[in-house]
Write a structure and sequence with these properties.
Elements (H helix, E strand, L loop, with lengths): L7 H14 L26 E7 L19 E7 L1 E8 L9 H25 L8 E2 L9 H13 L8 E4 L1 H12 L4 H7 L4 E5 L2 E5 L5 E3 L5 E5 L17 E8 L12 E8 L18 E6 L12 E6 L21 E3 L6 E3 L1 E4 L4 E6 L11 E5 L2 E10 L4 E14 L5 E4 L2
Parallel strand pairs: 4-21, 5-7
Antiparallel strand pairs: 1-2, 3-20, 5-16, 6-7, 8-15, 9-10, 10-13, 11-12, 11-14, 12-13, 16-21, 17-20, 18-19, 19-20
Length: 417
C-alpha cells in the first residue's frame, strides 16, 4: 500500500498542473525574468527586485558616411511584490487517492482561485496601455470591427508572430454568433470546443471572464493643453516610460477628474509607425490621432481647472523613439475616451513583451519540517504543513510569490467596436 501513498511532492506537482492549466493570460506576457533574480538557496521575500534593460532603437541613415547614434537603453524594475496563499486540509487516508482524484477533491477549487487571482493581476496592466481602436461602449460584434483593430496593431508594428487577442465574454459571444451564423455545424463544433475563435488575421482569439473593467474618471469640463512644446526626448527620459502633461479647462477643484487607465487624444497630434515614423491613416485615408493613457489618478485645481497628468507614451516628435508627428499646440483640445463615470469591459491585443509575470521561490519559514517547494514552467508553489496540536488537526498552506507589471505596453492595444 505504501507505493500508493501520495507524497507532498506529488501533491504539489498536481497543484502546479491545475494552477497552470487555469491561467488564461500566461501565454500573453513575458516569462523570462525568473533567471535574472540571482540564485538563492533560501528563496525570496516579498519586495525583491531586479533591474532590467529595454533594448535601444536606431534609425536608418543614408549615404556612405557613418553616423554614430546614441543607443540609450531604457530601464525597468521587476518586483515580486505579491504574496498569496490558500489553506487546505486532508487526512492520511486521503493520500491513498489517485493524484487526479485527490486534485479534484482538494486542489481544483483552490488552484482555480489562485489562477483567477494571478490572471486578474496580469490583466490589470491594461491601465498602462495607450493604444486604442474603436469607441468605448461599442461592441466588437463583427469580424470587420475586429480586423480594424488588427490593422491598427499592424500599423503600430506589433509583431504578428506572437500576437494574441483576449476578449470579454460579451464581445466574444457576439463574434461567435457572427461566425456560427455563416458556417456549418461541423466546423462550428470543432472551432468552439475550447471557446476559442478561429484564427483570423494571424491573431488567435479567446475569451476570459477576467477581461478587466475600467471606470472612467469624472472627465468634465473643456480640457486643453496648457502650453506648447511639451514634447520630450528619449535620451533625457530613458529611465521612465511616462512624462507630465500640463493641462487646464477641467471642471474646477474635482477629485479624480481622471483616473489611471483613462485614455485620451489631443487635437492635431497624430500617431506614427514606430519603425519608420510615417503618419498612420485609416481605411478612409484620414490621419489617426495618437491615443494616450493616464498612468496616475489626477485631480483638478481651482480657477482655471488645471491638472498635471502623468501620461504615456511620451510625446517624442523625431528620432527612433518617435511617437507623434508633432507636439501639441497650446490650447489644443483634449478628448477623453468614454463617458465620465462609465465602466467599460476591456479587450486586449497583446504581444508578450507588453508586460511580465515573474514567479520566484518563496523563502521558507524557519524551524518547520516538511516544507515542499516545486517549480514547473516558471511557476513555483510552496506547501507548508501547519499543525493544530490542541485540536489534533493537520493542515497545509500553499503559497505563491509573484510580480507583474508593464514592460513595453506599446506592444498591446485596447479595442472596442
Amino acid at each position: 500500500m505504501s507505493n500508493n501513498i501520495l507524497t507532498n511532492d506529488m501533491i504539489v506537482d498536481e497543484a502546479l498542473l491545475l494552477f497552470e492549466n487555469n491561467l488564461r493570460y500566461l501565454d500573453c506576457v513575458h516569462r523570462g525574468y525568473e533567471p535574472d533574480f540571482k540564485a538563492s538557496n533560501n528563496g525570496y521575500r516579498k519586495g525583491s527586485t531586479v533591474s532590467i534593460k529595454v533594448p535601444a532603437k536606431v534609425e536608418v541613415k543614408t549615404g556612405a558616411v557613418l553616423q554614430i547614434q546614441d543607443q540609450t537603453e531604457g530601464k525597468r524594475t521587476v518586483t515580486v511584490d505579491t504574496h498569496v496563499h490558500v489553506g487546505i486540509q486532508f487526512t492520511a487516508q486521503d493520500r491513498t487517492l489517485k493524484a487526479s482524484a485527490f486534485g479534484e477533491r482538494f486542489l481544483k477549487d483552490p488552484m482555480i482561485k489562485f489562477a483567477d487571482y494571478v490572471d486578474r493581476a496580469v490583466a490589470a496592466n491594461y491601465k498602462y496601455v495607450a493604444n486604442l481602436s474603436g469607441s468605448p461602449g461599442t461592441a466588437v460584434d463583427t469580424f470587420a470591427k475586429f480586423n480594424s483593430a488588427i490593422t491598427l496593431a499592424t500599423d503600430l508594428a506589433m509583431e504578428k508572430a506572437n500576437r494574441q487577442a483576449v476578449l470579454n465574454p460579451n464581445d466574444f459571444g457576439a463574434l461567435q454568433s457572427a461566425f456560427t451564423g455563416s458556417q456549418s455545424e461541423k466546423i462550428v463544433e470543432g472551432v468552439f470546443g475550447k471557446r476559442r475563435l478561429p484564427v483570423m488575421s494571424e491573431t488567435p482569439m479567446s475569451e476570459s471572464a477576467n477581461a478587466p473593467r475600467h471606470t472612467v474618471g469624472v472627465a468634465t469640463g473643456t480640457p486643453r493643453v496648457n502650453g506648447a512644446s511639451q514634447n520630450v526626448t528619449h535620451e533625457a527620459t530613458s529611465t521612465s516610460r511616462t512624462q507630465s502633461l500640463i493641462t487646464d479647462g477641467w471642471t474646477n477643484s474635482t477629485t479624480g477628474i481622471l483616473k489611471a487607465g483613462d485614455q485620451f487624444t489631443i487635437a492635431n497630434v497624430y500617431a506614427v509607425n514606430p519603425v519608420n515614423g510615417q503618419v498612420l491613416v485609416d481605411g478612409a485615408g484620414n490621419k489617426v490621432l495618437r491615443s494616450f493613457v493616464v498612468e496616475a489618478d489626477a485631480d483638478s485645481g481651482a480657477s482655471t481647472g488645471p491638472a498635471t497628468l502623468t501620461i504615456s507614451p511620451k510625446i517624442i516628435t523625431s528620432g527612433p523613439y518617435q511617437t507623434v508627428d508633432a507636439a501639441p499646440a497650446d490650447d489644443a483640445l483634449i478628448t477623453v475616451k468614454g463617458t465620465g463615470g462609465a465602466t467599460y469591459r476591456q479587450n486586449l491585443i497583446m504581444v508578450p513583451r507588453w508586460a511580465h509575470l515573474t514567479c520566484v521561490p518563496l523563502e521558507p519559514l524557519e524551524g518547520i519540517q516538511g516544507v515542499t517547494q516545486k517549480t514547473a514552467n516558471g511557476l513555483t508553489l510552496t506547501m507548508t504543513p501547519v499543525a493544530d496540536a490542541q485540536n489534533y488537526v493537520q493542515a497545509y498552506r500553499l503559497d505563491l510569490l509573484f510580480g507583474t507589471g508593464p514592460l513595453e505596453p506599446e506592444h498591446a492595444m485596447r479595442f472596442y467596436g
